[in-house]
């Protein structure tokens, strides 16, 4: 056990599907996994291990922001020998070309977060997912006739910001949306020689003003969830 995860060694699978919301993790476990078992609930961060079509999978929440994702992904990789984490989350779109519920595969993440610098002195602002994982995700999406968008996502430490101009972020940094966790995940994966990828579903659009409700964000992202689980079968 770690200070933040109470599961015993062997109770967490090598592949982890990681939403931010603990209730979404519970929903996925109850609706998609065979024989799901609650293996951790420290601080309300729920983690369940079961099988998906016979494949051992853990679904565990990350909480919000790089600090939270940084703690849980590091402990999963380092202490529980997890090899793969696929983050599934929501994003605010920066372009009207994206509609609510569109699925995005992150090709890269840009951030002004100091997470990597404080952790080990890394000064990079752009980090990348596993090429292997992204290739698998694209292949499975094609097989399942799931349309996915690809692009750079901005990872911010501040949800309520007075300084970030989304139009400038889109035009200058080529970021098509925003979220709060991938930078820490990709950094930990790179540092520990593990694999990580991020799938996002558009929950709101800065350009059009469209939004989903919190209940919809918790329950309605089934295309992204099923894609991540189907990818786990190929690993």
SSE topology:
Blueprint: E1 15-18, H1 22-32, E2 34-40, E3 47-52, E4 55-60, H2 65-79, E5 84-93, E6 103-111, H3 115-120, E7 126-127, H4 131-143, E8 148-155, H5 166-173, E9 175-179, H6 182-192, E10 195-205, H7 214-219, H8 222-232
Parallel strand pairs: 1-4, 1-5, 5-10, 6-8, 8-9
Antiparallel strand pairs: 2-3, 3-4, 5-9, 6-7, 6-10
Which spans have pLDDT < 50 for at least 5 consecutive residues? none
| Distance linking N and C termini | 26 Å
Number of helices: 8
Supply the number of structural domains: 1
Helical content stands at 25-40%
Succession of helices and strands:
EHEEEHEEHEHEHEHEHH
Per CATH, the class reads: Alpha Beta
Mean pLDDT across all residues, rounded?
95
Question: Would you give an account of this structure?
Answer:
It is a single chain. The relative contact order is 0.21. The chain starts with 14 loop residues before the first strand and ends with a helix. The chain is built from eight helices and ten strands. It has 235 residues and is an alpha/beta fold. It has one domain: Rossmann fold (3-Layer(aba) Sandwich). The longest helix has 15 residues, at 65-79. 34% of the residues lie in helices and 29% in strands. It has a five-stranded mixed beta barrel with strand order 5-9-8-6-10, surrounded by five helices.
């Amino acid at each position: 056990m770690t200070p933040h995860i109470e599961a015993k060694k062997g109770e967490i699978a090598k592949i982890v599907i990681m939403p931010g919301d603990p209730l979404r993790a519970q929903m996925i476990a109850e609706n998609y996994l065979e024989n799901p078992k609650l293996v951790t609930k420290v601080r309300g961060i729920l983690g369940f291990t079961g099988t998906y079509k016979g494949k051992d999978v853990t679904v565990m929440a990350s909480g919000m922001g790089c600090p939270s994702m940084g703690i849980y992904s590091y402990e999963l990789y380092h202490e529980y020998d997890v090899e793969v984490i696929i983050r599934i989350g929501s994003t605010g779109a920066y372009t009207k070309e994206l509609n609510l519920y569109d699925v995005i595969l992150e090709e890269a993440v840009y951030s002004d977060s100091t997470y990597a610098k404080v952790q080990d002195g890394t000064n990079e602002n752009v980090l990348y997912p596993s090429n292997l994982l992204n290739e698998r995700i694209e292949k499975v999406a094609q097989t399942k006739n799931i349309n996915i968008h690809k692009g750079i996502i901005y990872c911010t430490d501040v949800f309520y910001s007075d300084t970030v101009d989304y139009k400038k972020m889109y035009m200058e940094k080529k970021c098509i949306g925003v979220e709060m966790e991938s930078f820490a995940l990709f950094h930990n994966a790179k540092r520990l020689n593990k694999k990580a990828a991020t799938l996002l579903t558009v929950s709101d659009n800065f350009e059009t003003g469209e939004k989903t409700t919190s209940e919809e964000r918790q329950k309605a992202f089934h295309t992204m969830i099923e894609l991540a689980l189907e990818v786990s079968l190929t690993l």
